[in-house]
Amino acid sequence: MAKYDYDLFVIGAGSGGVRAARLAAMSGARVAIAEEHRVGGTCVIRGCVPKKFMVYASEFAHNAGIAEGYGWSASGATFDWKKFLEAKDREIARLSGIYVTNLSNAGAEVVHAKARLKDAHTVELEGKGTYTAEKVLIATGGRPWKPTDFEGAEHIITSEEAFHLPELPKRVLIAGGGYIAVEFAGIFNGLGVDTTLVYRGANILRGFDDNIRAHVAEEMKKRGIKVVLGCQHERIEKTAAGYVSHMSSGSAIETDLVMFATGRRPYTDGLGLEKAGVKLNEAGAVAVDKFSKSSADNIWAVGDVTDRINLTPVAIREGAAFAQTEFYGNPTSFDHDMVASAVFSQPPVGSVGLSEADARHQHGKLDIYLSKFRTMKTTFYGGEERCMIKLVVDADSQKILGCHVVGPDAPEIIQMAAIALKMGVTKAQWDSTCAVHPTLAEELVTMREKYVPQELGAAA
Predict the structure, then answer these.
(1) Are 388 and 414 in contact (CB under 8 A)?
(2) How far apart are alpha carbons 96 and 122 in whole angstroms?
(3) Domain spanning 6-143+265-327 has what CATH number?
(4) Within 13 Å of residue 36, how many CA atoms lie on the same side as its CB?
(5) DSSP E strands, 12-127
(6) C-alpha torsion 358→363→365→368, nearest 10
(7) Directed axis angle between helix 81-106 and helix 15-26, to 10°?
């Protein structure tokens, strides 16, 4: 008889957990995966997938204005929020169902229940009994963080509630400067909502290249988003007309909705990790080694719960590497270097590699190539939206350390750039690529003059 009920028990059926469970089950292992909400996790159910649908929906009004510049007459089209939500929910249900089907076809058992560890090998399922497993994988992702330390904080919603609003507000205040806050600011603004973005820092998108941060903020303002920096909430007052946010700057902002997008935290609450000997790091994430193994010898963790790089494709690759290592005899670790990312802001951002500031800290002397311009499409109708592209190059080796794009299709462009940077491309090799004309992306391989900031140029 088998010593354990399962060879592998996965807690959390998001992108990383599902991939690991499927691959492990396909090896012939006895696998179960528990999910307390819906199969698909943050990305499919309450993250990048529904958010991308909302981005698409919000862009049509802007595109309609462009269309007039190309000779199309105004159609008088209107937006139906409830109709959109119904279509969005149908698609999310379809995708979640595909995940369940794929798991079942692979031979994994799907359990809809909250799971917690009683010890390193024992999993208790809420209302469904207790089971044992030789190996356990934690893949519970993260949850939005909400402040509770000021008056009126109970009136705040997060991105998770934003996906299910019964109706669109006329006015919204979004607190935060990260990609979720910036993306939702573009979404609400594009859907006709009077939108204010408030962030306590000096500029939005902390962690991205400084030129990119400043450029995105300016372009957002051009689209009508009010970007307020250097202040934060002191209290929120509920009124008959909505809410008044009293800010540290002394201003009072009246809106119908207050949304906080001020970060996510690893979801480890109530998992019983301490009973299993699993240590957390200073950020409250499961501490793991390069093979995703925790401090407990038979427990691993992948995805956002480890707080390494919190991106869906990264979680998938981590889950696959775990399965290869533990169930296929092929020790594999995911390389977290040169992982591309995108911000589906308006305009969108694509970025891979180091920012200029990080590159200077790590490599010293750099060659910078930067260009701002209006696309052919924008110039034709007299628009003011400008793109930005930037290359960060090591001055000695001429290896490209970072590539950053702001403009239409930037996330699509950066995927191909990431391949070259991952392979260690030099500027000369990059420049030897013939351009595709006329495109925005051709500017990436035609930049020859090094960029000198105005203040440095004046001094020189």
Answers:
(1) no
(2) 27
(3) 3.50.50.60
(4) 15
(5) 31-35, 109-112, 115-119, 122-125
(6) -50
(7) 30
Residues of the chain with CATH 3.50.50.60: 6-143+265-327, 153-262
- List, for residues 355-410, the tens digit of each pLDDT value: 999 999 999 999 999 999 999 999 999 999 999 999 999 999 999 999 999 999 99
Active site residues: 437
Residue 338: is its pLDDT beyond 90? yes
CB 266 within 8 A of CB 304: yes
User: What span, in angstroms and rounded, lies between the C-alpha atoms of 187 and 168?
Assistant: 11
Task: State how far the Cα of 262 lies from the Cα of 177, in Å rounded to an integer.
Answer: 7
- Split at pLDDT 50, 70, 90, the class of 308 is very high
Average pLDDT, stretch 421-432? 98
Which fold, 341-459?
Answer: Enolase-like; domain 1 (3.30.390)
Which element (helix H / strand E) includes 65? helix 48-69
pTM: 0.95
Beta-bridge mates of residue 229 = 199
Task: Match domain 153-262 to its CATH number in 3.40.720.10, 3.20.20.70, 3.40.50.360, 3.50.50.60.
Answer: 3.50.50.60
Contact 352, 390 (CB under 8 A): no
